[in-house]
Amino acid sequence: xxxxxxxxxxxxxxxxxxxxxxxxxxxxxxxxxxxxxxxxxxxxxxxxxxxxxxxxxxxxxxxxxxxxxxxxxxxxxxxxxxxxxxxxxxxxxxxxxxxxxxxxxxxxxxxxxxxxxxxxxxxxxxxxxxxxxxxxxxxxxxxxxxxxxxxxxxxxxxxxxxxxxxxxxxxxxxxxxxxxxxxxxxxxxxxxxxxxxxxxxxxxxxxxxxxxxxxxxxxxxxxxxxxxxxxxxxxxxxxxxxxxxxxxxxxxxxxxxxxxxxxxxxxxxxxxxxxxxxxxxxxxxxxxxxxxxxxxxxxxxxxxxxxxxxxxxxxx
Length: 316
What we know:
Layout (H helix, E strand, L loop, with lengths): L3 E2 L6 E2 L3 E3 L9 H13 L4 E3 L15 H13 L6 E6 L12 H15 L4 E6 L8 H13 L3 E7 L3 H14 L4 E5 L13 H8 L3 E2 L26 H4 L6 H17 L3 H10 L8 E2 L4 H12 L4 H10 L2
Protein name: Aldo/keto reductase
Pfam families: Aldo_ket_red
Organism: Bradyrhizobium brasilense
């Protein structure tokens, strides 16, 4: 599988990142191990998680996904084969939230312990914290990089202005810069990335790893009416906003290109993202090993210029 450079970090990653938010939520530990084995066997070595996954589940406190990944890496002895990305900054309860240096210093140790590793390849600010000067946050990350606990840093859920500001501060102060940006971006949701944020990423050579790349499953084509919402726990929560004339137009466009390429709609939707020059790797997940084949197929699917343009038009 051909790898791509992630910003200027020196890390190279597969063209698709496997999202691990389902571990400990809709996928139990045994099934998670099977999924991770399949993913790694297929060359999808880039894993994305966060300390907060899956705190939203009743009875969970966060860290469930990291814990499963850590147990799996220890059992398999394969840490050196994995490019590991996690995040800090979302509310973990008890005032543990944000990007203050003392909190980052504690949170990274918690993540390292759960992941059973000495270092994190990509440590990301999960969301902006406007109450903390960006110089302080970047200086905290600088300490972690110098200590060998983190290889590179990234950001998620930042505005174009705040990302540019962070990049400027890093350059002016000799601090590490955000090498990646994680925005919501898909055929169904284009406005949060396209425009100002995309321009900042392109102008500064910042890698882009997109979340909700399949719009919570809508772009798989399995949700086409309200009666389909019960097909997954995410369905009823996220899909209704896509059930409109534009959403149906997008599915029709996906169906058309899927028929031409003999691929599944999900693979086409991911291949559309991979065809965007500024996107390094869309993040996508699976709950069963057989679904991993669709993700791998997406990395092998090259859409023609005409197909990309038709999908652009369908989702405009």
